[in-house]
Each structure stands twice: as C-alpha cells, then as structure tokens.
Amino acid sequence: MFWQKDIETIDRKELEKLQLKRLQNTISRASKNIPFYKDIFAKSDIKPKDITSLRDIEKLPFTKTEDLRANYPFGMLAVPKEKVVRLHTSSGTTGKPKAIFFSKKDVNQAAELIARCLIMTGVKKDDVLQNMMTYGLFTGALVMHYGAEKVGVLVIPAGPGNTKKQISLMQDFKTTTLHITPSYALYLSSVMSNEGLNPSDFSLRRAYLGSEPYSEETRKKIESFFNIDVYNSYGLSEMNGPGVAFECTEKNGMHLWEDNFIMEIINPETGKTLPDGEKGELVLTTLCREAMPIIRYRTRDITMIIPEKCRCGRTHRRISRIIGRSDDMFIVKGVNIFPQQIERVLMGIKAVAQNYQIVLESYDRMIVRVEISRELFDGRVEHLVNLKNEIVEKLRAEVLVRPDVELLEPGTLPVTEGKAVRVIDKRTL
Ligand code: DLL
Prior knowledge:
With about 425 residues, the protein is of the alpha/beta class. It has 2 domains: about 1-325, Rossmann fold (3-Layer(aba) Sandwich); about 330-429, GMP Synthetase, Chain A, domain 3, CATH 3.30.300. Helices cover about 30% and strands about 25% of the residues. It contains 11 helices and 21 strands. The protein has a 9-stranded mixed sheet. A 4-stranded antiparallel sheet has the order 10-11-12-15. The protein is globular. It starts with a helix and ends with a strand. The model has no long low-confidence stretch (mean pLDDT about 95). The protein binds 5'-O-[hydroxy(phenylacetyl)phosphoryl]adenosine (DLL). 5'-O-[hydroxy(phenylacetyl)phosphoryl]adenosine (DLL) binds near residues 139, 140, 212, 232 and 299. 5'-O-[hydroxy(phenylacetyl)phosphoryl]adenosine (DLL) binds near residues 213 and 325.
C-alpha cells in the first residue's frame, strides 16, 4: 500500500535528477538568505554554481549541532518571520537549545512524509492511533499527529505518562496503533502485566517505536508481549522530527525519504564519505524545507545504508537500525562500548524485566543494574546467582569487559516520560 506510489517507487535515475535540482535550489536559497551559509560560501572557494552533480555535495562543509546553537534563536531562518508558523526546539544534553522553524509548507510536507510511513505499514482510516509521545516543543507528538490526521485515522493525543489512564483509553477507544518510545513501551508492558491484563483482549495491531535507540531483542520482547508488529521510526528535530526514515512491512531497515533528504554516511573521524554497506555517521541535507534548510548536517547517529533493494518495491534506500550515537559511546578499560550493545544482551535474556541502568564508576569499573522479572524473585539464592553469572558472562562476551551486575526488583529504577537515561557516568559528574 502506498500513499504516493509514483514518488515512493520512482526510478533511481529520476530520483537522482530530482535530488540534484532540489539540492541546487536549497543551496541557492540558503546562500542568499541565511547569514551562516552566506558566510561559508563567501569564505570558501566553492560557489553554489559549482554544484553540478550529487557527488559535488562532498565539497561542501558540514553543519554541526554547535552551528545551530550558535545561531539560536533566528540565525538559521531562510524566510521572513511572517512565513513561520511553528517552532520546535531540541534541547540535547548541554547548552542552549536548537530552534527549528516550520513554514506552512513545511508543516504540510512533514505530515505528507508521516502519511507515507503510516500507509506503508498498513494503516487505514478506521485505525485509532494513540500518540504517547510528548506534546510540546518536542517534535515527536505533533509531527506524527498532523501526519496521522492527514491519513484520516482517529488520533488520541494522549501524550506520555499516567499509564493507567493510557490503558483505559486503549480499551475504551479500541486503539490499534501506538506511537511510543521503546522505554515507555517496556514500562507499559510491565504495568499491564502487573494489572493482570492480557494484551490479546485489546485491539492493538502495531506500534511505531523511535526517538531513542533500541535493539532487535527489545523489538521482539515488545512484539511478543503485545502480540503486535513493531516498526522502527527514525527522525530528528533538525530534519522535521519523526518521518525521516521508517520501516515498511518487511521490517528490515528504514526507508529514508530520499526525495526530501540527501543521505551520506561518513567516517566520523575523517569526514570522508563511505560506500553503502559500511557503518558510519549519518549526514543529512534537507531538500524540501522552506523555513530552515540545512546542508550536510552531522546527526552523530551511527548506521549504514543497506545496499540491497527492498522487496516492498520502494526505491528509497534503507538505513539500518541506529547502532548508537557517536557521543553515546563510552570507554571502559580502554574498550569502546555503545549502551545498545548492553541493551541487546539484556533484552535477549528472558528473566530480565523492562528496565536497566549502566553506571560508570571509574575508567575500569562498569556496573550494570538490571531489574528482573517478578516470577524470578522467588527468594532462592541459587536462582539469582545463576542468573547473575549468566548476565555477567553474556555481557563480557559482547563488550569484552567484565561488568559488575546488580539484580534488582522490578520498579526499583527510575522511569522517565521522555527519552530514557540509561547511562550514569560518575566519572564526569
Ligand atoms: O526524537 C524525533 C522522533 C520522534 C523520532 C519520534 C522518532 C519518533 P530529537 O529529540 O531531536 O527528535 O532526537 C533525535 O534521537 O538523532 C537519534 O539519536 C535518536 N533517535 C530517533 N529515532 C531513533 C531510532 C526525535 N528509531 C535523536 N533509533 C536522533 C535510534 C533514534 N535512535
């Protein structure tokens, strides 16, 4: 099923022609209207007219998160303020937020992309989507909301939290589709299971999970608890929010909408472009954004382009699950570790419940605190010792560092409404 079949299955040659035309237009507008880009072109040898092929994009400098911060609040705007109809911000962990502006056309275009994503996963007008992302300055909820309304589904603007109420909404309005973060989906499953509720008595069919990294094991855990299909959804505020890349029913990598974005994978250390199939940092250029075009934005997200064609017939290339962020990686005993490696191991162990935390005590000591499922809390020390040893060994095999593991009762660790905080780095506190 397609929302815009012609563009979703466009011939690659045609797609590239369209990309080039849109890239040239974006560069020309940015270099005329945004002082930051005007400056870049004034200082460098490369001029907008020198971009005559898609490969020429590699000659342009990157835009970094610090550039958006330095130009806060209005510095990256390409249109007069009267044309802006919406502001979102992305706060990140430090410093000033980044301001992201939408014109009317941008709001509509972002909704179009979401509509593609929903129809691609089989949504129909009679579906009911419970939007459990945070409404407000965060893009997650509002951008999805507008896209879902465009498709014509009933949207429940629930926001996150108040889990018992969420469950009643799901029951009363026969919710079929959830839009939710992976950490909140795990928490929801623990509340439902504590309440003795059987997800098969609900009308749920699918969930869109994104906004934070999670592993295939977490997907499986959530799919099997709720008896639904989970689709991975990737996006970032700087590029509209959700709807940048999304899984089709093959559930094997996310189609990145290449008529709206140019994607590159680079080596984060050297900045050199890598071929399809190699892991590196995702760099994105907007092709349709009116209010705030961004050229070669360094997302810091590590992924790769899947070279094979997808069986669904869409020609827009897929990216793999995000492996981690280049700034999420930490080093213990000289070994590079991504939190997601740890999550993958934990979620693959049946006795592990929904929540965990990684505490970096020192440069050679990592503690992994794990909640275990209630059934296993039977008081038999022998069970707990065996489980702890299993977790230590599996983690050591994956990350090559032996962690200390603490087993905890369910509900011990904090739950956040937004993105989960998994790593506590005491070395930098
Ligand atoms: O999280 C937009 C979004 C909302 C995407 C809802 C999907 C669903 P930001 O708050 O700007 O925007 O955070 C963007 O979140 O650079 C990734 O590091 C991470 N991220 C987003 N989706 C995924 C995903 C929204 N599916 C940052 N897997 C991005 C892994 C993800 N990481």
